[in-house]
Amino acid sequence: MKLHRKILIQIILLIAGFNQVNGQVSVHGTISDSITNKKLSYVNIGIKHKNIGTVSLLDGSFNLTIPPGNKTDTLTFSMVGYQDYKSAIRDLPNDINVKLKPKTAQLAEVMIKSPSLIDKKFGESNYHALVQFTDGSTNQKDIFEIAQLIHLDTTLSKITTVNLYISASRPDSGIFRINFYKYDGRHPTTRICDTNITQTHAITKGWLTFNLKPYNIYMKGDFVVSIEFIPNNPINKPINYDIKLAGATKSFYRASSQGDWRLPPHHYVLYVSALVEKNNK
Fold this sequence. Notes:
This protein is 7% helix and 45% strand. By secondary structure, it is mainly beta. The strands form five sheets. Strands 10, 12, 13, 14, 17 and 19 form a six-stranded antiparallel β-sheet that branches. Strands 8, 11, 15, 16 and 21 form a five-stranded antiparallel β-sheet that branches. The chain has a four-stranded antiparallel β-sheet with strand order 3-2-5-6, with no helix packed on it.
């Protein structure tokens, strides 16, 4: 009798598991520029605040499995320099061709007249801490993004580099995207720069430096800078970088496209350098 009951329970669990998997929604397709039809790589795709997402591959294709409980949610497609595309998941076909519209806002020309500018560091630039650990980007099909709050003066300053201390070398390269966000006093919010800064770098121990001089990025006041780790198939190894328990600024992270920002119990060894007036040292 007990054996029959045990078998019956196992059958019920198998049926429940099958129904749950069967209720999933699989969405796949391609993403392209609405004007040029060029396929768009590394587009962030996901359900806002639900930590369910992925990014498009080099050829613009993507594949995302939606859990049964999220069928009534909205899927968001976003990329730097483009308008967001949103659609109710229940209205999406299994195979979709998403067209993203480029943003048309023109950037105002910035003139820095001061003849005495120096390159100054802002953020966590000291990697010789007494208490220090090693973190690593997660292994998944979605992005992993780390961020740092930066305090600048009220005068516009040109951002020249973004820097992260890598604690272990790896015999390959990684794909990264630099983002800038507004800060609401608690978390990063909307992007404040529509320039797509995606770079590929070798993973070598020491400072990983992103040269931003050619992009003419100007910032002032408080903002958040982030480094977005983009999945680099078929490599399936973490990228190790340094963290500190104590720091002078605030750090953030998120482990999914369109996901919520969280506060880690540590600080990233991450800083930006910017051209500022000499008397602002």
